[in-house]
């Protein structure tokens, strides 16, 4: 069993802790969090929680899941040397410390109040040593079969892609919901469409899957939509994405 | 059985034809299309195809699934009076012709080369007569249990929402795929994330489901992403959607 400590109990730390508890190869010893974690969350994970680095146990692997701008500082607080220390950031480079530096980047959208099936999560690994990589690979594979060796540069591009296909997509759901609310339409009517839109690109490429007024060169509908959006904040977004679709697909608008 | 003719064999007509063939209450008599339909597609549906309005059979319901700007003209070609004539447009008003005018709007993204489960598709109905509505409701319910009475104004807003949550979302997938391709990253790595992003809003509202740098007030990552996008067409879209998320969630950027 790989003795593991998680440092940071935000959305990612929370789900990694749950995933580690389920994994056969991982012995989750402790979770460190800067502030005290609520009792019900502590109970949900069922492991020792600490808020003081002096109480940190010796482990094989420390997963550092804190905000990007404090990762380097947090790693310095680990009072042991030559340990595997992996951050979970999509953006940060591989660190260069006295530890065996690594990256353990689970590519998913994490919210504490949303259950996840960890077996489908892609885990992207990077390490400065083969031995470190092998240990992390064993660990990752006991969570999910989808484990990838990804360089810092690739990870940064993956993270950027993820912002488009997840964070920005979700914001478009927010806009769709707001339009529905303003016109007393239940947002649930759009659920099947949202599901199919995501599902479609498993069998078609996104370029093949494109539909809609911008693709069809349907200027009348586009003009009507822009009029409908007149008093909202979303008109510019509509215009810009419509132009981008037209440009990509060579549609004249 | 409700005798039905479909006029127009684009993406929507194709899938409606398949759905009608599966429905117990619907007798699909014919499909009209302006140009001749390929033999393999004719065979897939297994019904008479015509390209001449003179060959149109008498039916209870004509579903008109053609481009918005030719709908009115096509309806005039129907050589029978007092029939139920329903268009499938998300944008057009209820027509006002010598027929029993109606709308039969299936809210989904349709591509011919993508199989669909018709039982999950919401069907939005509108009619100028109660009797017409009742017939269409019977028809729609034999395709899917999700049948709604939706006014023209609501339908136009639904269609606008659908552009955001489907057409624009798919374009963000296109962008995500392009970034991956440029950096030799298999787009499949993002599949679980895309699926979870769509799935998440079944249990959380889209506002609660939001994650990412714009929400976290993570200016460093945003700046890095904009640099990564420097030579692409996607920088403006990134900037605009990031600003919109920040505005919506009251994040200071």
From TrEMBL, chains A, B:
Any single Pfam family the record assigns to this protein: DUF2520
Record domain Pyrroline-5-carboxylate reductase catalytic N-terminal: where: 5-85
Domain DUF2520: 121-244
PANTHER family attached to this UniProt entry: CONSERVED HYPOTHETICAL ALANINE AND LEUCINE RICH PROTEIN
Record-given protein name: DUF2520 domain-containing protein
Lineage summary: Bacteria, Pseudomonadati, Bacteroidota, Flavobacteriia, Flavobacteriales
